[in-house]
Amino acid sequence: MSEPVHESVGADELLDALREYATKAGASPRVNKTLGAWDCRIHILATDHDAAFTLVVTGGQPAEPTPGPTGTPDLVVRGHSFDLAEIFWGDANPVSNYMQGAIRTQGRSEDVMRLDAMAMFVFLGQ
Amino acid sequence: MTDSSAQPALRRALSFTGASAISTGLAFAAINFLGLGQLLTHVSGPMSWLAIVAGGLILLAVRSVFAELNGMHPTAAGIRLWLARAMPDKAALTITLTYMVAIVLVIAADAYIIGEALAYAFGNGRLIAVGYVAALLGLATWLNLRGIKLAGAAERIVTTVVVLATLVIGIIAIAHPGHPAHHAALGAGSSSSPIQALVLGIFVYTGFEWVTTNAEEVTEPRIIPRAMLVAVLVLAVSQSVFAVAMGATLDGASLGTAYPQLLVAQQALGHAGMLVMLVVTALTAVNTFNGGFVTLSRFMYAVAREGKLPRPLTRLNARAVPVVPVWLLGGACLVLAAVVAATGSFAALVSLAAALEMGIYAAAGYCVWRLRRREPEAARPYRLRGGVPLAAVLTVVFALLALLASVSVGPEISAVPLALLLGCAGLVAIYVWTCVPRLERREAEELAARRAARAAARKAAQR
Question: CB A74 to CB B12 under 8 A?
Fold first, then answer.
C-alpha cells in the first residue's frame, strides 16, 4: 500500500473546516438524538505542521473549536492536515482513513465510534 | 511539526493491570476446557502440562509478532490494517472476515458450553440446554444493544476470580483426585500425536492477542506487549494445573463431555465444588461476550463504514450501538450453538476454531515478514527478535499447524473442520471478489459527488 502525498492545509483553513463541521453537527437532529449523552474533549493534531485544536462535545453538542490542545483529552486524533480537513469537509470517509492508517486516534473505542457517527449523521444524513 | 510519537495523558486510559485482565480474560474462554479435554486424548494427564508450556513458549514468539505489528500501527483496526499493508486488499479483507468467523465460533461455543453445563448442573435435557443458550445470547444481545459494557475494574475482578478459582479447584483435584476407579483411564488415547497435543496446547491461549484492539486506550505503548506476556504466563500456569487435574480425575467418557470442568470440580469437591465451577464457567462468558461481542460488532460497523460490508450494518440505535451487527452476531451464535447441540459436534468446533487461530498467527507472521521488507524505515517500538527468518519460520509452522488442526477432531482424522473452513473462506472470498467492488464503486461515486457539490458551493460563495 503506497502512501499518497498530500498538500498541507493551513491551520486557519483547518480551523474553519472544523468550525463548519461543528456547526453542522450541532444543527443535526440525529446527532442530538443519538449522541445526546456523549461528553468528550477531543484534541485534533496535524502531523505535518504545528496546528492543534480542541473540540469539546457536551451532551452531544460540539462547542466552538479552539486553537491549541487544552485540558486533558478523552480522545486524540492525529493525521495529515489534508486528511483531517477532508474529513471535516465531508470529502473523505473517516473510517476509511482510519482503517488505512491515515489518521490515528488515542482514547476509548466508544469515543472514536461516536466521532465517526457524528460525521456519518452530518454528511450522510442518516 | 507535531511529534506523532508523543503519548499525551488521557482522561480515561487503560492501565497495565486492566490490559492484562483483558488479554487473559479474552483467552480464558469456556471452550478452553473442551480443548484441554481433547488434549488429554493425545497425551497422558501427568504429561499434559508439557504441551501447554510448549504452546506457551511458542506463543511468546507470536506475542512478539503482534507486539511489533501493534507498535507500528496501534489501532483497534489493527489486523485489517496490518494485512492490508502486507498483501493485496482483497486477500486482506478475505482473511479479516474469515477471522471474524473464528470469533463468532468462540462466542457460540462458549454459549453452548455454558448451556450444557447449566443443564447438567440442574439435571435438564438437551432442549432446555438450548433454551439456556438462547437466554444467554438474548441477554448478551440486549446488554449490547443497551450499550452496557463491563467496566475495567469489573473485568479485572471477573478475570481474577476465574483464574484463581480454576487454579484452586485444579490443585485440590490433583491432591484429592476422588474415586480410584477413575485413575484406570488416565491418559486415554495417549498414544496419539504429540503434535496435535501441541496444537491444542496453543489453542488454550486463543484470543490473548485481541487486547491489541485496545492499543489506542493506553498511554504507554509498552503496556500491550507486557499485558500479553502476563496473559501467556497466567494461562500457562492455570491451564497446565487444570489439565493435570482433569487427567487425574476424569475417565475418557467424562473428558468427551461438553462440561469436563464441572466433573473435575464435582470429583474433587462434591456438588458444591461443581456449582462453584459452574459460576466460573459462566464468568468466562462475561469476558468472552464483553470482549468478543462488543469488539466484533464495532469492527463490522467499521468495515461497513469503510464501504466493504453492506450499509445497513452502519445503522446505529439511540445509544450509538450498531444494531444490525449486534443482532446478526446474536442470531449467528444462536444458530451455530443450536446446530452444535443438535449434532453434538462441539469437538469439530474446537478444531475449526484452532485451525482459524493458527491461520491468523501464520498471517501475522507473514505481515511481519512482508512489512520488514516493504516498510523497513517504519518506526517499530517493539521488534521481533530473530527478524525476517523467525517471522518466516512462524508463518510456515503455523500454516502447517492450521492444516493439521483442520483435519483432526479429537483423536480421529476428519476432514469436517477443513471442509467447514474452506466453505467459510470460499463464501467470504466470493463476497469479497463479487460484491465488494460494487460497494467500493458506490462509495467512490458518493464521495466524488460530495466533493463536486462542495467545490460548486465554494465557487458560488466566491462569486
Answer: yes
Cell of B331: 442470531
The average pLDDT across A53-68 equals: 92
| B10: phi then psi, degrees, rounded to nearest 5 | -110, 150
* Least Cα separation, residue A15 to chain B (angstroms): 16
| Closest to B370 (Cα-Cα) out of B78, B88, B74, B77 | B88
Average pLDDT, chain B: 87
**Measured between CB atoms, which of A35, A45, A89 is closest to B320?**
A35
Contact yes or no for B4 and A43 at CB 8 A: no
Angle between helices B223-249 and B31-39 (to 10 degrees): 60
Is the C-alpha dihedral spanning A72, A77, A80, A83 positive or negative? Answer: negative
| Closest CA–CA distance from residue A20 to any residue of chain B (Å) | 12
Q: Is the separation of the CB atoms in B169 and B34 below 8 Å?
A: no
Query: How does pLDDT run across A19-40, given as a tens digit for each residue?
Result: 988 998 999 988 888 888 889 9
Q: How far is CA A76 from CA A51, B314, B351, in A?
A: 13, 23, 41
Task: Indicate whether A100 pLDDT > 50.
Answer: yes
Burial class (CB in 10 A: 0-12, 13-18, 19+), A125: exposed
Concatenated DSSP letters of B175-221 = H----GGGGGGTTTTTTS-HHHHHHHHHHTTTTGGGGGGGGGG-SST
State the ipTM, two decimals: 0.86
Q: What are the grid coordinates assigned to B156, written together?
A: 479485572
Q: From A125, which residue of chain B is nearest by alpha-carbon distance?
A: B315
3-state helix vs strand vs coil in chain A, percent to 5: 45, 20, 35
**Helix intervals (H) in chain A:** 11-27, 29-34, 81-89, 94-99, 109-124
Residues 6+ apart with CB under 8 A from B373: B388
Please report the pLDDT score of residue B1 as a whole number.
43
Contact B318 A100 (CB under 8 A): no
In this complex, do B76 and A104 lie within 8 Å of one another by their Cβ atoms? no
Please give the Cα distance from A47 to A8 (Å, whole number). Answer: 10
